[in-house]
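Researcher: We're teaching a course module on how sequence relates to structure. For the next exercise, students receive a sequence and then see the predicted structure as tokens, so they can try to spot secondary structure elements on their own. Here is the exercise chain.
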Amino acid sequence: MSRIGKKPILIPEDVKVKIEGQKVIVKGPKGELQKEVSPEIRIELKENKIFLTILNETKKNKSLWGLTRNVLANAIKGVSDGFEKKLEIEGIGYKALMSGNGLEFSVGFSHPVKLEAPEGIKFSVEKNTIIVSGIDKELVGQIAAKIRKIKPPEPYKGKGIRYAGEIIKKKIGKKAVAAGG
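Model: And here is the predicted structure for the students to work with:
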């Protein structure tokens, strides 16, 4: 049994939840999200709590139970508080600039790399820090990963784009290896 799936989801006062069949619509002060739920999972709304139960106990359905509960809990948190991911740019001459609705990166290529913000995502740049924010946790993480993929941190000097707080394990270069051996 899923211990996560058993927990009810508490709904804050400023959030409205509407269940239409297997579709859950969550409205809050920051926006609106719609999530589709597997037909193997039953959703019930009782006294400002969402309860999830599985209809057929198979291994797949048990794992979907916990996943669905967390997806719905993240949707509720997103429309009330929102989510954000921070990325840092490391390297001499590496920078990111706001250009209209998106970002423009200068990260050592012969050309600037442009990335447009999809609907529901906001970018902000402060010195060498990029902040990706929005109400959908999945989309915020996906866009942050796409930004990091533009120039991942390399292991010798650590230059590139990394998540805030990410530790890059550095390798020693050829000269250090040759001198030591």
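Model: If you want an answer key for the exercise: The CA atoms of residues 103 and 115 lie 5 Å apart. The chain has two domains: 3-80, 83-163.
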